[in-house]
């Protein structure tokens, strides 16, 4: 009798497994029914098995698929959820700009009961709250504000310079060095805090490292926010590491309160937040209370220091590999500074070759893998009649665009001349998207570029950057949603005449 019962239980379990498999894989016909080309899914990870087992970098994985097809768009499945990848620049322009009202949200989990800081921050928040918040935060990133930040960044540059002098002719992992630099710049320019991460292991740098650590669970958590919302809901994953958020939240909250009580004004990000809180406590679309203001501070810090640090580090790597480009850049930096009588804001803007070098670095190493959008109401593609249903996730692959031979010939080559005054006008619209485009582009791109340029200027005018035995070329990327070199970026600095 007991054996019969065991057999029945096994049969029942087998039937449940069959039923679950059929139920789970039923959406795998979604794109086939709509006659949309798609990447064949497999149980249980859909089309992204190599990504979810951390075998492939997500940006490179989707980018390679984009460049193997001539389709305007195609589908794939993350687990059993259908996604639409847009591969055509004109259609990308439609989504990001022309018909933005249909695609105004990022496809990203936004649940303040799971992760209040992330879901309330400008990056993830949904429209119409996003539009209200974005409009009121724009003044923090005006050109006049950028001009005021140059002396503050110069002060951090002094510490960067001293750090490199202490490590002359040694191997330096430059991504970590650059993260210390961008941490200190953002702390000073936007929060009025003096932090020297080069001297001691500051709590700010520790928090920054924790925010986006590369452990398996952190990778799974970050990926899930884009591709596995059910996992976020089930396991209550947080996009940003909770102890780091708690530390940063306390620091920023104390800073806001200190600024209020002292009534000192620096015209920085903190003053903008205080003004938002005092003038619009209940904005209708967005509630400007203390918790939401702290969320903006944490969100901006977490996204700003990491992306800018990566850009500086990868640029230094390419300059070390291409000594001729580095020498030309050094000549421009010295000539322009001499012409302007010092390093001022207008001098930085006049360094055209510097801008070309950084633009090419952002092409080859975009700081994000994808641009995500969510269809917020049913949309019919005019040319094909495809109905994109409300809630459909849209993916635009920056790697797919930036490494497409039709957009950028010989895309693996580091070539700043792609962005000279002649060639830049030949770059097709919406094929180069390091900061996205349209109303929901990166709000901090001008500040990020200023921080990156000033860091590179400080290094190039004072030091020669070279490769060493620990340098890996070409760079191998970590299979992590945020761009990071798998083996670090190890370089050596040598003194130049300018530094003696």
UniProtKB/TrEMBL annotation:
This is Cytochrome P450. Its main location: endoplasmic reticulum. Gene3D superfamilies: Cytochrome P450. It is found in: Endoplasmic reticulum membrane; Microsome membrane. InterPro entries: Cyt_P450 (IPR001128), Cyt_P450_CS (IPR017972), Cyt_P450_E_grp-I (IPR002401), Cyt_P450_sf (IPR036396), Insect_CytP450_Detox (IPR050476). Keywords: Endoplasmic reticulum, Heme, Iron, Membrane, Metal-binding, Microsome, Monooxygenase, Oxidoreductase, Transmembrane, Transmembrane helix. The keyword Metal-binding applies. Belongs to the cytochrome P450 family. It comes from Pyrocoelia pectoralis. Its cofactor is heme. It is a peripheral membrane protein. The chain crosses the membrane at residues 7-24. GO terms for cellular component: endoplasmic reticulum membrane. Heme binds at residue 442. It comes from the Eukaryota.
């Amino acid at each position: 009798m007991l054996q019969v019962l065991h057999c029945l239980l096994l049969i029942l379990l087998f039937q449940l497994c069959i039923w679950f498999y059929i139920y789970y894989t039923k959406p795998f016909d979604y794109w086939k029914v709509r006659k949309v080309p798609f990447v064949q899914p497999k149980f249980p990870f859909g089309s992204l098995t190599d990504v979810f087992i951390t075998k492939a970098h997500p940006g490179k994985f989707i980018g390679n698929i984009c460049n193997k097809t001539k389709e305007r768009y195609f589908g794939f499945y993350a687990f059993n959820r259908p996604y639409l990848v847009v591969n055509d620049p004109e259609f990308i322009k439609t989504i990001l700009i022309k018909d933005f009202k249909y695609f105004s949200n990022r496809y990203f989990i936004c649940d303040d009961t799971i992760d209040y800081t992330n879901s309330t921050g400008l990056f993830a928040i949904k429209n119409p709250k996003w539009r209200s918040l974005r409009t009121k935060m724009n003044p923090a990133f005006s050109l006049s504000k950028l001009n005021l930040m140059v002396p503050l960044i110069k002060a951090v540059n002094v510490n960067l310079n001293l750090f490199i002098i202490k490590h002359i002719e040694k191997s330096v992992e430059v991504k970590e060095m650059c993260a210390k630099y961008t941490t200190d710049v953002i702390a000073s320019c936007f929060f009025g805090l003096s932090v020297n991460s080069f001297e001691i292991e500051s709590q700010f740098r520790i928090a920054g490292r924790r925010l986006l650590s590369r452990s398996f669970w952190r990778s799974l958590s970050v990926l899930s926010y884009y591709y596995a919302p059910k996992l976020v809901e089930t396991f209550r994953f947080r996009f940003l590491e909770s102890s780091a958020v708690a530390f940063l939240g306390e620091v920023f909250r104390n800073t806001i309160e200190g600024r209020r009580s002292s009534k000192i004004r620096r015209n920085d990000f903190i003053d903008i937040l205080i003004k938002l809180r005092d003038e619009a406590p209940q904005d209708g679309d967005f509630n400007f209370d203390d918790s939401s203001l702290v969320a903006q501070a944490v969100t901006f810090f977490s996204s700003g220091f990491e992306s800018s640090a990566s850009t500086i580090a990868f640029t230094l790597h390419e300059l070390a590999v291409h000594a001729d480009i580095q020498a030309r850049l050094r000549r421009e930096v010295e000539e322009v500074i001499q012409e302007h009588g010092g390093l001022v804001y207008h001098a930085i803007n006049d360094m055209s070759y510097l801008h070309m070098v950084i633009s090419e670095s952002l092409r080859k190493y975009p700081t994000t893998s994808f641009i995500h959008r969510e269809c917020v109401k049913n949309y019919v593609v005019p040319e094909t009649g495809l109905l994109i249903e409300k809630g459909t996730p849209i993916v635009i692959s920056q790697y797919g665009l930036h490494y497409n031979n039709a957009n950028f010939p010989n895309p693996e080559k580091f070539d700043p001349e792609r962005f000279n005054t002649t060639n830049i006008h030949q770059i097709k619209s919406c094929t180069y998207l390091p900061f996205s485009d349209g109303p929901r582009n990166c709000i901090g791109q001008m500040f990020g570029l200023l921080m990156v340029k000033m860091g590179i200027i400080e290094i190039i005018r004072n030091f020669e950057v070279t490769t060493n035995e620990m340098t890996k070329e070409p760079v191998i990327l970590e299979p992590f949603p945020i761009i990071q070199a798998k083996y670090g970026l190890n370089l050596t600095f040598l003194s130049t005449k300018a530094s003696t």
